[in-house]
Amino acid sequence: MKTPLAVLQLTHEKTRLLVALAGITFADVLMFMQLGFKNALFDSSVRLHNSLEGDIFVVNSQSDTLTRLTSFSQRRLYETLGVNNVESVTPLYVGLGSWKNPLKGKERSVFVVGLNPEKNIIDLPGVSENISVVKHQDTFLFDSLSRSEFGPVVELFNQQKPLKTEVSNRLIKVGGLFSLGTSFGADGTLITSDVNFWRLFPERERGLIDIGVIDLKPNADLEQTLDFFRENLSSQDIKYFSKEEFIKHEKSFWQNRTAIGFIFSLGTMMGFVVGTIIVYQILYTDVADHLPEYATLKAMGYTDFYLLTVVFQEAIILGVIGFIPGFSLSMLLYFNAAKATGLPIMMVTSRAISVLILTVVMCCISGAVAVGKLKSVDPADIF
Q1: Rounded CA gap, 229 and 167, in Å?
Q2: In this structure, are 67 and 208 located in the same domain?
Q3: How far apart are the C-alpha atoms of 269 and 372, rounded to whole Å?
Q4: Most trustworthy range by pLDDT among 9-18, 36-45, 119-128
Q5: How many domains does the chain contain in total?
Q6: Structural domain of residue 159, as residue ranges?
Q7: Calpha distance 259→135 (Å, rounded)
Q8: The pLDDT value given to residue 1
Q9: 136 assigned to some structural domain
């Protein structure tokens, strides 16, 4: 077993090798972090969507995202009960309130969800177990995964102390905890009854809802029912979505209608470009420093294809080895970032494979550019 020439070339200058690996590691970490934040943006924005139990969702056509919904008349929801495939309908109310930290008194925006406690449609840990308590006046469920700026709510609640604070200048009581998590649009969430929701937002007009949730009968065809709604009940002010379409609509807003999605995509591209430039510099310098050796090989009868293969082997070896510390460091950064922000930043297999492929492609592009000088090597010129 002979050691490949590409390996000998790389290990001959150990300092240069370490610099190359450091550059690739940096590029990989940059791509991993940008992709991680981008996917965290999408995943966190649809946490509540995924938890809603229903077949069809009705929203105002002017609604962009969950935190900026436009209300519509509940009559538009209840008219769907006249369709044979419909089993039941449930209105949902959402709004932004001002939470006062129970210890420090600082205020912070909080996302508030109101629903009929007799028919819970939110499938989240802690909601079904505690939904009955929101029937009491001014009683709310608090998201235990909210940001720490809301105060030590979980600790105070677990001490079985009466936990009261103000939301939008109204005194409320925390009657239970549930688990949802933060997003780019909401740092904390409250769930309460529709009656308590109206008490908290007295300026809201009764009869207006934010989301309509429709349950179909067991044997009803979802697509046919959606087509019927859109052809017979829809108008310019209402949209009907399946759950999958509802989730896709939310993700599309963050991807295409905000700067955040573009910035993360641009960051990933920049990481790719930076890595390409670093590897190119390393490989080009290596080729330039060893032109006499390559010329000697050509004089001995080795073809250009063989020499080009050596450079490409170096590029692939650099990419694979540099990926390992980049992956490991990204795992550590993911853990710390998720802990600090509460966002679902985690490593997934598909992302790791994607970055590995990007890394190899990045190094191969660098190798393809770097071998330009090698093709023109003439043994007669060298000697």
Answers
A1: 38
A2: yes
A3: 24
A4: 119-128
A5: 2
A6: 56-219
A7: 40
A8: 43
A9: yes
First to last CA, the chain: 32
Residue 376 has a pLDDT of 64
Q: Which residues, in sequence order, are bridge partners of residue 60?
A: 238
Three-state DSSP state, 371: coil
Indicate if the alpha-carbon torsion angle 303, 309, 310, 312 is positive or negative: positive
Whether residue 241 lies inside any domain: the answer is: no
Distances 144 to 67, 139, 178, 210, 313 between C-alpha atoms, Å: 19, 16, 6, 24, 51
Q: State pLDDT tens for residues 251-304.
A: 888 888 877 778 888 888 888 888 888 888 887 787 777 777 777 777 787 777
Residue 241 tokens read as 């979505």
- Which pTM does this prediction carry? 0.81
Residues 6+ apart with CB under 8 A from 70: 60, 62, 63, 210
Cα–Cα distance measured from residue 131 to residue 199, given in angstroms and rounded to the nearest whole number: 18
Give the number of C-alpha atoms closer than 13 A to the C-alpha of residue 180, restricted to the C-beta side.
30
